[in-house]
Amino acid sequence: xxxxxxxxxxxxxxxxxxxxxxxxxxxxxxxxxxxxxxxxxxxxxxxxxxxxxxxxxxxxxxxxxxxxxxxxxxxxxxxxxxxxxxxxxxxxxxxxxxxxxxxxxxxxxxxxxxxxxxxxxxxxxxxxxxxxxxxxxxxxxxxxxxxxxxxxxxxxxxxxxxxxxxxxxx
Length: 170
Prior knowledge:
Layout: H1 2-35, H2 46-58, E1 62-70, E2 73-81, E3 100-114, E4 117-118, E5 131-132, E6 135-140, E7 144-147, E8 153-169
Antiparallel strand pairs: 1-2, 2-8, 3-6, 3-7, 3-8, 4-5
């Protein structure tokens, strides 16, 4: 009986030490990754991405996909779904303050109107007022476009589901 008790204690102690060692190694790797340029990889499979787009649609057109805070501030990667009036750009059009937006179209299509000035008319169904003097570009699934800071833009002739991922670049 004494031998069994000693073996049980030895097994418990060794198991505890193994758990502590694994935890210490994991913690050290996490700290090293935070300090390294490689960082931590985050994967969003199609199921998570679809769920984020559904949330965006029910939340007025935009939802956060990923966020990171560092000494340089907070960076958010957002998903946008411009499929209903509720999910449209503001009547004065959309613009970004303080960052350039790198945009990847995941599905659907639209005419992106960029630059120019907002016109005082009724808002379009899917995004802001018509822009006078802007450039029009037909965009669709697989396209990437880059919008500089403070640049007025909006979407017309939307083919739903028009969904895109927006990555801010300072």
